[in-house]
Amino acid sequence: MSLRIWNGGDAKSNAADRDRHGNTQLGGNHANAKLDEKKALEIYNSTESNNVLASRYQVSRRTIQFIRHKKTWKHIHKDEDTKDE
After folding, report:
1. What's the Cα-to-Cα distance from 73 to each of 4, 53, 70, 82, rounded to whole Å?
2. Which stretches within 1-85 are classed as H helix?
3. Which of 22, 49, 52, 85 pairs with 15 at a CA distance of 20 to 30 A?
């Protein structure tokens, strides 16, 4: 087992390093996640109100809003975003 030595750096470079090494906890892989990718996509594609969805999935209305505006769960939109190019 090899250990990496932490070089310090700012938050942006640390996040890039975490991504590069596959250690970023995205979406449903995060320990505190209440949703998974399937549910996040259902929310994103739904025409129901934020209140209805928040109640159904037991999350806040703000969580629903963030998913719909691509502020969270950004990685589920990668395939969709490349279609626009």
Report:
1. 28, 16, 7, 16
2. 11-20, 37-45, 50-57, 61-68, 78-83
3. 85
**pTM for the predicted model, two decimal places:** 0.59
Q: Given this model, what pLDDT does residue 81 score?
A: 47
| CA–CA–CA angle 81, 59, 15 (5° rounding) | 50
Amino acid found at 38:
K
CA distance 83 to 85: 6
* Rounded Cα–Cα distance for residues 53 and 56 (Å): 5
- Asked whether the beta carbons of 56 and 34 are under 8 A apart, the reply is no
Look at residues 15, 20, 21 and name the one whose alpha carbon lies nearest to residue 2. Answer: 21
Eight-class DSSP state of 77: G
pLDDT of residue 79: 56
